[in-house]
Amino acid sequence: MAEAILEVRDLHKHYPLTQGILFKKQVGAVKAVDGVDFDLAAGETLGIVGESGCGKSTVAKMLVNLERPTSGTIRYKGEDVTKLSARALKAVRRNIQMVFQDPYTSLNPRMTVGDIIGEPYEIHPEVAPKGDRRRKVQDLLDVVGLNPEYINRYPHQFSGGQRQRIGIARGLALQPEIIVADEPVSALDVSVQAQVVNLLEKLQSEFSLSYVFIAHDLSIVRHISDRVGVMYLGRIVEIGSDAQIYDHPTHPYTQALLSAVPVPDPDARAHRERIILTGDVPSPANVPSGCRFRTRCWKAQERCTLEVPLLAVPAVFRLTDSPAKHDSACHFAEEKQVVPPESGENGGNGGNGETGGNGETSASGETSANGVTGKEANGGEEPKSL
Amino acid sequence: MLLEVRDLHVEFHTREGVAKAVNGVDYSVDAGETLAVLGESGSGKSVTAQAVMGILDIPPGKITQGEILFQGQDLLKLSEAERRKIRGAKMAMVFQDALSSLNPVLSVGEQLGEMFRVHQGMSRKDSKAKAVELMDRVRIPAAKERVGQYPHQFSGGMRQRIMIAMALALEPELIIADEPTTALDVTVQAQVMDLLAELQRELNMGLILITHDLGVVADVADKIAVMYAGRIVEQAPVHEIYKAPAHPYTKGLLESIPRLDQKGQELYAIKGLPPNLLNIPPGCAFNPRCPMAQDVCRTDVPPLYDVTDSPVPRASACHFWKECLHG
Amino acid sequence: MPEQPQPFDDGRAINHTGAGGGTDLAMDEGETLEKTPGGPKGTGPDKKPRSLWSDAWHDLRRNPIFIISGLIIVFLVIISIWPQLIASGNPLDCDLSKAQEGSQPGHPFGFNGQGCDVYTRTVYGARASLEVGLFATLGVTLLGSVLGGLAGFYGGAWDGFLSRITDVFFAIPVVLGGLVLLSVVSNNSVWPVIGFMVLLGWPQISRIARGSVITAKQNDYVHAARALGASNNRMLLRHIAPNALAPVIVVATIALGTYISLEATLSFLGVGLKPPTVSWGIDISSAAPYVRNAPQMLLWPSGALAITVLAFIMLGDAVRDALDPKLR
Fold first, then answer.
1. Chain B: nearest CA to A79, how far in angstroms?
2. Under an 8 A CB cutoff, do A386 and B291 touch?
3. For the residues C202-229, what does the mean pLDDT come to?
């Protein structure tokens, strides 16, 4: 892996729960983020998936310094950004920018598009001289696929997808190295989501950006990410390359999550094995002892109550060459393939043939799916053979 | 046929003009059958459902044309009092947002029991027993203890179960579920969808599932109606549509799903934006975004053609469905 | 992604049809723009862009309630600056011999108990009412929105302290407070009355301002500005204030009418404005004993008062309709 430009270590964010009006007494804490570690390499996309309340958005906010961590470090090129002075922080902020989920609340309705995208230059005047700004803003509009003439319009004159492009342009203005995208497409119409995902990928290669891409849509995360981390109740429970996570998950939560995702293929209904978890996610104010997933886990034993599993390569895989050899915080990690290879007519036999195989085999197994291959889809103009 | 919607038209009168939300929708669902209505926001899928349920806000909404036949009876010709008797008893609806659909100041037991008191004149005590029974049925643990609790004391998944219980209370013949799992987490979504499908089988109800999620549709639907700009653009049994869509819009949606073999490549994206309902393009509403569009598409509105060379009945509102189907 | 409940969700969106896909995004956009310039609202690239404020103004101009109340208010402002435009007499020029007399040529509203011309006094009374109303509203709005806005923005101890203070002020009955506080002031001008109103009125605005600042503060665009490294001043002035202002303006416009009637109440009770200042409240007060013999003394000033208060409240209503984000 290339050199890490962002190193997150033991990150915590606890929100105190207090009682009393005049004399506040802390009675507990909501452990929104409770010990998160990961690295982000230059030019890479790290996907973070998890259900609502797992702390993924809080992690995003801490990465761009919108929230101060309770403890832990976030090192950007070796420098701990959580302990910087206001002035030094301002300089770092230029390099880590955010794209927000809701394009309807992330743009100030009282400002024109030009003012919104130009604001970064007003805050950081050293980046662009005054006379140059308008042209820069128009260039940015062009880069994100909007007409540069729209510079004087207001956000309410745009649709959701266009607004998200404006938000992306604002994030790009200071030429950051890292963009943290918190559910950037989940508020958009289905037919527009792919446009924005494509735009993000195009920008990544054009400006050599690193992404932290937070989402709950597992298929989009897989498409865009080089590595994926799975969060549950404030912690990363499993992290690895996209093929490791999707094809060879070893943590029971990842397996359940992947198996629960509806597959857009009615033929998969028959031979799909689904793990239906019982119950709900426990409250982050009252985290179970030991392994936090044990209350919903079908494998839980006494050890899980007593001992917190660490995020490391599980002992069973340590000496193997298995593609399942990646960090997983489970005492009883074992591989289980839950995502059936996408299949058309020939899908029936592919359901469980891949266990232990390597990533390439499983990927090539998909190519025949529905006869829709990447190349054809890209062309877009011609109807394809089916 | 349990429910048949015929040539339904709905308009909304807004400050900016007349928004044509539904422009001639036909669909039908039989007992024990699941029809998925697939579409983006503004496609008219929810408005159609609201018109069927009779909960459309009139004004600003207005049903300008069409019939809604429920067990052979045109609901649009009934009085409000007659419709009210059907609502809840014979057809029920599950909404997306369970928290705002439940009354926060009444316990869930009271809200469930109310169905029996209002529609069947049951006593308070009997209706409470019925409420517990319903909560058991949708598998809410410790139903007896929780029947007196208030909506905010339940998690999102549990609240959606309560909504389902409420819809099922009077064992209706038709359930309309409007994005029932969109607000839920994936692992909870699976639980709720399974429950809904199982109860539907058990009670042999018709189910109209309104969603934008191609995955959910593939999991549970028998047949699909794809809506775009207030019209059905394609209708077919679920297996056929995923195998070979006969409309470029459906095709575009299916192709824009990220696939493993496309990793690192650009996703297929339908170009452009969903149409503005105040100003729907002439001809085929999809023509500005369609890769196959010809001159005729910009002038003539395509009727819902029968897809004749299919072994099962299916239809597509595309002048070039043949080309689309066969490529 | 949840579906938007409104079936005409895209009503405000621009209707050009090629946002583009793939790598030629910009090209797509440009091409289609030529084909279909501008959307349903005529927002073509050459037309003047419209902000929410100018949209509100656009709506207001078409609202008959706004036009009627606006005309009344413009008229009131003009006559309070130049009362001699429509009243040639002097309001303090009285002739006891004509006391309580009815309508006569040149004196359409008749005379009051002191024999002063009721028409002239009613016209001249507008000035005091508007002065009190406008300056009290101005003071209340400035003080209230600054204190409330800062409390909402910074939160914490200052917010807690301010909230308790507002509670205390809310607990003071206005009329009783006026009787007590103003009875010790002997200054013969409108300023003590205005000062009293500001003192008791700012907590109302401060609550509104605090609430709307807190709402605005939670918007992602404020977070976005902070992530860019914006200073507190920039966030407050550029992002929060413009978005938190609308409810304050609405409440202030409606409050203006109530301050005018409060002035009349206080003057009626003898603690507000005092003669020789001419005010509707004073005239209503002095007319009270003569209602049976000379109803015109009561009718004209109270009618003028009612119309003025109504005009401001109607204006406030119209402004609220135009600014209410739920209707936008």
1. 32
2. no
3. 88
Q: Which residue does chain B place closest to A278, by CA atoms?
A: B191
Confidence at residue A344, expressed as pLDDT on a 0 to 100 scale? 38
Residues of chain A with pLDDT under 50: 343-386
The residue-averaged pLDDT of C255-276 equals 83
Q: Which of B23, B256, B273 to mutate against chain C (most C CBs within 10 Å)?
A: B273
Chain C CB contacts of A94 under 8 Å are 229
**Cβ of A101 and C220 within 8 Å?**
yes
B238 touches chain A (CB under 8 A): yes
Q: What is the pLDDT of residue C50?
A: 59
**Which residue in C has a C-alpha nearest to residue A100's C-alpha?**
C220
* Cβ–Cβ gap C3/B44 under 8 Å: no
Q: Shortest CA distance to B260 belongs to which of A215, A372, C22, A214?
A: A372
Q: How far is A373 from chain B (nearest CA, A)?
A: 7
Report yes or no on B200 lying in a domain.
yes
* Total domains in the fold of chain B: 2
Q: Do A342 and B259 touch (CB under 8 A)?
A: yes
How far is Cα B143 from Cα B146, in angstroms, rounded to an integer? Answer: 5
Q: Read off the tokens for C72.
A: 């009344």
CB-defined contacts A:B, below 8 A = 172
Residues of chain B above pLDDT 90, percent: 10
Q: Which residues of B touch C8 (CB under 8 A)?
A: 12, 14, 19, 21, 42, 277-278
Res C292 pLDDT > 70: yes
Q: Chain B residues with CB inside 8 Å of C21's CB?
A: 269-272
Nearest to A106 among C30, C220, C228 (CB): C220
- Do residue B290 and residue B217 come from a single domain? no
- B20/B140 same-domain check: yes
Is A337 in contact with A354 (CB distance < 8 Å)? yes
Whether residue B186 sits in one domain with residue B78: yes
Least confident of A45-59, B114-128, B200-214: B114-128
Domain with residue B127: its CATH number is 3.40.50.300
The ipTM assigned to this model is 0.79
Domain formed by A4-17+29-225, architecture? 3-Layer(aba) Sandwich (3.40)
pLDDT of residue A339: 67
Q: How wide is the angle at C-alpha B94 spanned by C-alphas B133 and B219, nearest 5°?
A: 100
**What mean pLDDT comes out for the span B217-221?**
85
Identify the domain containing residue B280 by its residue range.
238-326
B51 and B185, same domain (yes or no): yes
Map residue A269 onto helix, strand or coil.
Answer: helix
Q: Could you give the CA distance from residue A362 to residue A355 in angstroms, rounded to a whole number?
A: 9
Q: Which helix (H) or strand (E) holds A74?
A: strand A71-76
Residue C188 is predicted with a pLDDT of: 67
Give me the pLDDT at residue A9, please: 93
Q: Are residues B252 and B201 in the same domain?
A: no
Q: Give the mean pLDDT of B127-151.
A: 85
Residue B268 lies in a domain: yes
CA distance B316 to C325: 41
Report the SS3 class of residue A239: strand
Alpha helices in chain B (DSSP H): 45-53, 80-86, 98-101, 108-120, 124-137, 143-146, 156-168, 186-203, 214-220, 238-243, 248-255, 295-299, 321-326
From B158, B260, B274, residue closest to A189, measured CB to CB: B274
Q: Which residue of C has its CA nearest to A185?
A: C1
Q: Which residue has the higher pLDDT, C41 or A37?
A: A37
Using the beta-carbon criterion (under 8 Å), do B14 and C32 form an inter-chain contact?
no
Q: Which CATH class is domain C52-323?
A: mainly alpha
Q: What is the pTM of this model?
A: 0.77
Question: Per-residue pLDDT for B212 more than 90?
Answer: no
With an 8 Å Cβ cutoff, is B248 touching chain A? yes
